[in-house]
Amino acid sequence: MMAQVDPARIEAIITQLVAFGTRNTMSSQTDPTRGIGAARDWIAGQMRTFAATSGGRMTVAVPGYTQAVSGSITHATLISNVVATLRGSTEPTRIYVVSGHYDSRNSNNSDFTNDAPGANDDASGVAVVLELARIMATHQPAATIMFAAVAGEEQGLLGSNFMATTLKNQSADVQGMLNNDIVGSSTADDGSTDPFTIRMFTEGIPPTDTLAQVHSRATSGAENDSPIRQLGRFVAEVASNAITQMNVQMVYRADRFGRGGDHESFLAQGYPAVRFTEPHENFAHQHQNVRVVNGVQFGDLPQFCDFEFIARVARVNGVALWSLAQAPGTPKGLTLDTSVLTNNSTLRWTRDTRAAGYEIVWRASEDPFWTHVIPVGAVSSATVLLSKDNAQFGVRAVGANGFKSPAGFPF
User: Is there a single domain that holds both residue 365 and residue 230?
Assistant: First the structure.
């Protein structure tokens, strides 16, 4: 499936989005050729074309709301997301989200008149979303996948906050969200290149944890085993390979210093979410007016994008999404029995009859990834002859198709 990712199509998407001149959140909603409204309508048209090939499995919606004057929003503004939903065949209520933001900005975040090409930030992320929607529309995942192009990111994560809050209010079971923001270039500001690495930012302590939960994580050594980190481990393990030709670099923080992204809206609602960003950024090509200063070109222009690199990022997302959607859900109700002082470790979990079996995974507490696997069959508990004091334990579900879920952690 991932062989279908086409760098030429990715280039065409970015070129078209840049051609709308500016996609500032407050730019024209009605001009057919310039502004965020034209970009929104074009993205929706693309997604509807993909949905037409899905046999009815994919639907497209453009939900939104009116944002009042606040911060860098200088007048009441319609915030519209474009979302294609590919309904799961056997577990449609289990959801995974992939996103990029289609708004753009220049040096002045409130300038909705002058050009803001936004090729890398974030037409590159939208290109990843659209290319995956095109390819996956003709396939049938077990769980539901939502492909989202969101607006208002530059003014405070407005569109993604609306989406994540809406899903939370619906009690939606979002088990993973992948945010693609600034995934367009493999070249740093000093000219060095790293075309086969993508950073993945993964927060440690969920922002929804109470003080008591934070204390419990610290005292039990679980600060590196949140659902966010488990999602990150899963992505790094399934998507760093010959299919993607990429190394997924797992970064232990929510985002870069002084920056933020749409994954944080999902984190704020208690959903596991990670952010992909290119390995080395060139800040002359972000949030800048298009201009030349002392021979240096400023501005977020398509000429600085690496379309082969973006295609590899799309494959990372695609492999991760498909592996998540085809596997059983992350095990729930995990406990580690600490009531008795023994050198054994007994784990219990809620068995899902749709899972063919389970595996206990473990690693030394200082190791970043799971290093050992113990198949235990279609059960709801197991005892391992290892001390709970010396290792970190998780449980993952295995489907009849061989796909494995992210690990659940007993916390």
Answer: no
Total number of domains constituting the chain: 2
Whole-number Å distance between alpha carbons of 270 and 168 = 9
Q: How many CA atoms lie within 13 A of 334 on its CB side?
A: 23
CATH code of the domain covering residue 293? 3.40.630.10
Return d(Cα 247, Cα 76) in angstroms, integer: 43
Range of the domain at 266: 2-326
CB 94 within 8 A of CB 175: yes
| Rounded Cα gap, residues 350 and 331, in angstroms | 7
Residue identified by tokens 């070249």 is: 187
Q: Among residues 214, 223, 402, 222, which one has the least CA distance to residue 326? A: 402
For residues 138 and 152, membership in a common domain is answered with yes
Kindly report, residue by residue over 41-83, the tens digit of the pLDDT.
999 999 999 999 999 999 999 999 999 999 999 999 999 999 9
Q: State residue 272's pLDDT score.
A: 99
pLDDT value at position 210? Answer: 96
pLDDT, residue 214, reads: 96
With 0-12 / 13-18 / 19 or more C-beta atoms within 10 angstroms meaning exposed / middle / buried, residue 204 is middle
Residues with pLDDT less than 70, the chain: none
In a domain, 410, yes or no: no
Strands (E), 154-201: 173-180, 197-201
Residue 411 maps to a domain: no
d(CA 227, CA 409): 8
Residues 351 and 238 in one domain: no
Rounded Cα–Cα distance for residues 85 and 61 (Å): 8
Measured between alpha carbons, how far is 349 from 333 in angstroms, rounded to an integer? 5
In a domain, 300, yes or no: yes
Cα separation, 230 vs 327, in Å, equals 15
Residue 228 DSSP one-character state: H
The answer, yes or no, to whether the previous bond of 122 is cis (omega within 30 of 0) is yes
Please give the pLDDT value at position 134: 99
Q: Please check whether residue 315 lies inside any domain of the structure.
A: yes
